[in-house]
Amino acid sequence: MKIAVGFSYLNAKQEIPWSLDPWYDRPEIDYIIALNGRFRTPLPPWIRQKHNSNYSTDGSEHILKTRYPEKIVHENVYTTQMEKRQRIFEIAGELKCDYVIVIDSDETIHPQYQDWDLFFKQLAAVHKFWKNERIMQLRLWIPDEALWPRQLNIVMTESWRNYYRIHKNPETMRYVFNHYSWADKNVTEEQINSWTWDPKNSQFNDLYDNPNYIHSNIVMDGIRLITNRQKRAKTELEFGENWTFQEINWENFKRVEARAKTIGFHMKGEDVPMERLYFRNAGQLKDEMIGQIVLLNEDGTEVQVEQYFENDQLVVKSPDFTPPPTTTTTTTKPLEQA
Questions:
Q1: What CA–CA distances, in Å, run from 243 to 51, 175, 226, 238, 294?
Q2: Which CATH code is given to the segment(s) 3-176+213-232?
Q3: Which stretch of DSSP H or E encloses residue 50?
Q4: What number of other Cβ atoms are within 10 A of residue 219's Cβ?
Q5: What phi and psi, each to the nearest 5 degrees, are found at residue 182?
Q6: pLDDT (tens digit, 9 = 90+) per residue, 155-196?
Q7: Which of 15-29, 142-156, 209-223 shows the lowest per-residue confidence on average (mean pLDDT)?
Q8: Residue 260 φ then ψ, to 5°
Q9: For the chain, which residues make up each domain, given as ranges?
Q10: pLDDT for res 289
Q11: Are the CB atoms for 331 and 312 separated by under 8 Å?
Q12: Geometric angle at alpha carbon 134, from 186 and 115, rounded to 5°
């Protein structure tokens, strides 16, 4: 088996040794695929002006190339989170990797769970006997908020969480709609959206029921992960909560937009470049964060979209907005909470 670790980072010079040294020391790991660059997402103009560096400025790339010279594969990539993570899959395919294990720069191997022999024996068994399994989970310890500021992450601290991190034949799969769901490259978005689920429930229930997604219940053990944000650059921690809010709402918006098109609705902001919109906090619905869309005209003036819920249905209305020439903006029927 040929195995790579996929690592996405920005200004991570303090995190890199802590995060990657355990993987580099393992002879079973053939490559470390490291992509430098900020995730591109909608941002309010005042935040965009303050954080205008799209690539690391702290020497992280030099550390990676000098500390892991025999295994490092490096690229500078400034694009959306999904596209950047997809590029890791593509590079792993180009390197003929059977597996890629995706980790973030604020994660490393838990010091109390480092039975590498058990882990690689399990992976070899899955590779040999469960040939149809394409994604697998690893356990990750979430510490207290002093070590891991939430940044809007709705998870229980001081607990174990299972996350999909191991991808088999990564060049055959793609991210769809968000950074935690995948489908075979032969599956279209129309096929995914045509799957019917109960509109009264969360719009994310289809992740578990929709047969067009790649599913798996396998949890690997032997090694486990732990996260810690204390080593993260202060500027990135300050930026993180604003970024997370925008990213969550952007992925939700694009998911609902795709579903809306399938059932014949259109939304204000549909197909608008992300530089022409951002989100304001509009509360929560059924424990899901809701951002109010703010559209930006070419001259920078704002058009705040009227967005509210009526009988658990999303209603989107807007005053005049000057869209890009190719944008479709006809609406405003109530949009079901898909």
A1: 10, 20, 22, 9, 16
A2: 3.90.550.10
A3: helix 45-50
A4: 14
A5: -140, 155
A6: 788 899 999 999 999 999 999 988 999 999 999 988 888 776
A7: 142-156
A8: -60, -45
A9: 3-176+213-232, 236-336
A10: 61
A11: no
A12: 160
